[in-house]
Write a structure and sequence with these properties.
- This protein is an alpha+beta fold.
- It folds into two domains: 160 residues, 2-Layer Sandwich (Chloramphenicol Acetyltransferase); 207 residues, Chloramphenicol Acetyltransferase, CATH 3.30.559.30.
- The chain has ten helices and 14 strands.
- The strands form three sheets. A six-stranded mixed beta sheet has the order 8-14-13-11-9-10, with helices on both faces. Strands 5-6-7-2-12 form a five-stranded mixed beta sheet, with helices on both faces. It has a three-stranded antiparallel beta sheet with strand order 1-4-3, with no helix packed on it.
- Strand 13 and strand 14 form a beta hairpin.
- Helix 1 packs across helix 7, helix 5 crosses helix 6 and helix 5 packs across helix 10.
Length: 499
Amino acid sequence: MTALQPARHDPPDGRDTLAREGRAPTTGTGPAPRVRFPLVDEISRHCLEDDEPETVHVEVHLPGRLDHARLRTAFHRALARHPRVLMRQIPARWWHRHYWWQLTPAPDTDPVVFPPPGPDALARARSRALTDCPPLDSAPPLRLEVIEPTHPTTTDPQPAPPQGTVLLLTAHHTALDGPAALRILATTAELYGHTHPAPPPTPHSHHTPRPSTPLARPNPLIRPAYIAPSHSAPLQHPANEPAKKPHRRHPPLPGNGMLLTHLPLPTRPSHPTGTQAPYTINDQLLVATYLMATHWNARHDRPTAPVVITMPIDDRPRGPQMPIGNGTRLAPVHFPAPPRTGDAPTPSDLLHHTAARTRALKSTPRPQLGLAGTLLTALPLPIGARRALTRALRALAAPWAPTALLSNIGRVPYPLDFGAEGGRATAVWFSAPARMPRGLSITAAATSDGDRIHLALRWSRALVDDAAAARLLDLFRSSLAATARTPQPEANRPSPDPT
């Protein structure tokens, strides 16, 4: 997550015009330009934990193979076109007033890596994307691994192509977010394939009229539901050896786990009048997340409570001039607690109310991290004091943490075409950190010419283990299917009213 700056088409130099907005002046022979950490960067920097690396994972699957030297050149040129990626954190002391980025004219180290190919190369790269965070003190704070599997993986349940190339980009989330990382890969594809940038898609209107019925304001004192923890069964002792200690559960492992899958694009329900309903795929994903959480907690005997899902909203353009950094603002989508008695709302009802909520949230200006984040970073205190205060308030607010995060890019607005050699992307995944106390993130994307959702489920191992996460994914799959329109047989369809 970093400050925003549009791309440019010339390599950076010492007189970069980026030295504005609270940055140190620079000359051709002076020090490298500096950029003060904006709000999101600072909050993320305060809350870093060694046990839960703050990584963004972007994975692009191509049908063909790529030339190593040509790809490295294209990626370095893409970094030059987006110079705000070429930065490192300046060492800071607790008494300093701010954290600072230092812009660099070139990478400190080569970010392009070609691991040895093999049947487990992709699984190892995915594991590194969750555990090995690029350092902030070296420019750029990201890493591109180029995976060329030679044989299909038989032990890894994750989807992996038997042939072709996988580009796996890992970025530090304090410096970069998922849409910005994807834009860098899109620029790399344009430079590698010698293609012209695709025209930016028509932006969605963010000034949608508010619903006629105002939304009920949630009670801030009511704690949202959180996903019930679930870990391995108790340890079993051999039959011929008496247990010396009471059975204990396996201690949770640190860090995140991740599952990737394909899901069919759900059909959209029809409006009772016969017109297309004002529901989006994003609304269906939100409802599916709500159903997954309530059903999971009911199976684990959790008390009913309202479900709050964090939804990133990205207003940035998607063309070559897309500002690089963190341009999303986080909006909470509230769902009421499921009724203890009586009939539960149908998926159709949930979709109707969710669509009204999301339209209102998208049209309402909101600070990126809410009012609390703005106030924390505005306090006239040294960063050491602000860091201690931020972490203390985060711990106090943990019981009111949202239930889950759902980030949906939708159809990827770039062809990601690497020419005749690499071909166009056949699958695109990305994942966001799943840190406690929320501990669960769901991310979705779809290629421009596909009819499948590429879904990533990422979880904190302190919350659930691998087996429980697989059950969560199955529950999400069935919950999303429940939001889809079921075609009505011709014989059972009501005949049109002759009047």
